[in-house]
């Protein structure tokens, strides 16, 4: 029970990678605040987890909005008296050709991926710095922050910026015993990606390890980085892509 008596907050956790991170944290003894924009997904997941494996509280809402961010922090502190782990996983992908990419799409990607991560980290740090043990944060980046990917200029830009944010926060937060790292998943089998029936086969054919990642592959890496074993690791990025960024063949 690596996370016994720990309190974790995970955004974008109604399905996919975020949901699996919650599942693994609960299995290791953590109490979890589960956020998702989709209230039905969040409530259903939290209810199922609570009945099966521990204490999980749903706080649905847009995690890029200041009021929702504060609600997430306040719920953790009110219910459990502390906040030890934050996983800023919420993000959106809006594909589009650079030459015609609309401003509304650009600013929405930046609001959710950058603004949501920045201000969640800020609010969480202001709580964690009051705790003698500090805390741990993970931001979900992407391989598209490292390698160009067609129709994802804005998204890739936002993910590269998240990694720079983590590095900068080493200066800001290390004095408070808060470590901050990022994970960069490659192609991963989730409910969303599997809407494309060819997705799994395409990525299996161009990934050196011969398959796309499972959500468990990504969640296992995230749990290591927020565990006590990784408390001296900060400002780092861990790419989890089966070797794809080493050769970077296009899926198109």
What does this entry look like structurally?
- The structure is a single chain.
- With 252 residues, this protein is an alpha/beta fold.
- The protein has a single domain, classed as NAD(P)-binding Rossmann-like Domain (Rossmann fold).
- 44% of the residues lie in helices and 13% in strands.
- It has a 7-stranded parallel sheet with strand order 3-2-1-4-5-6-7, sandwiched between helices.
- Strand 1, helix 1 and strand 2 form a beta-alpha-beta unit.
- Helix 3 runs parallel beside helix 4.
Write down the secondary-structure element order.
EHEHEHEHEHEHHEH
> Major β-sheet, in short?
7 strands, parallel
Mean pLDDT: 96
| CATH homologous superfamily descriptor | NAD(P)-binding Rossmann-like Domain
* Helix/strand/pairing category: alpha/beta
By DSSP (H or I, 4+ residues per run), the number of helices equals: 8
Q: So what's the CATH class? A: Alpha Beta
* Principal-axes shape call: globular
Strand content: 5-15%
Helical coverage, percent range: 40-55%
Give the CA-CA distance, first to last residue: 43 Å
Number of structurally distinct domains: 1
CATH topology: Rossmann fold
Strand order, sheet with most strands: 3-2-1-4-5-6-7
Rg (C-alpha, Å): 17 Å
How many strands in all? Answer: 7
The CATH architecture name reads 3-Layer(aba) Sandwich
Low-pLDDT stretches are: none
């Amino acid at each position: 029970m690596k996370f016994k008596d720990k309190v974790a907050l995970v955004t974008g956790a109604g399905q996919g990678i975020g949901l699996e991170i919650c599942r693994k944290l609960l299995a290791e003894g953590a109490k979890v605040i589960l956020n998702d924009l989709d209230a039905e997904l969040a409530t259903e997941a939290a209810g199922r987890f609570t009945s099966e494996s521990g204490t999980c509280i749903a706080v649905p809402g847009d995690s890029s909005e200041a009021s929702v961010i504060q609600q997430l922090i306040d719920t953790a502190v009110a219910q459990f008296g502390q906040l030890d782990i934050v996983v800023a996983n919420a993000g959106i992908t809006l594909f589009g050709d650079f030459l015609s990419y609309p401003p509304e799409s650009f600013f929405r990607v930046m609001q959710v991926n950058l603004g949501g991560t920045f201000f969640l980290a800020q609010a969480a740090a202001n709580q964690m710095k009051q705790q003698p043990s500090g805390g741990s944060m993970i931001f979900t980046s992407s391989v598209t922050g490292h390698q160009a990917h067609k129709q994802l200029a804005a998204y890739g830009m936002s993910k590269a910026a998240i990694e720079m944010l983590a590095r900068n926060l080493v200066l800001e937060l290390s004095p408070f015993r808060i470590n901050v790292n990022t994970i960069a998943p490659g192609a991963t089998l989730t409910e969303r990606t599997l809407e494309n029936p060819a997705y799994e086969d395409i990525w299996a054919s161009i990934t050196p390890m011969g398959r796309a990642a499972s959500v468990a592959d990504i969640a296992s890496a995230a749990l290591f980085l927020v565990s006590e074993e990784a408390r001296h690791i900060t400002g780092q990025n861990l790419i989890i892509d089966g070797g794809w960024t080493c050769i970077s063949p296009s899926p198109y």
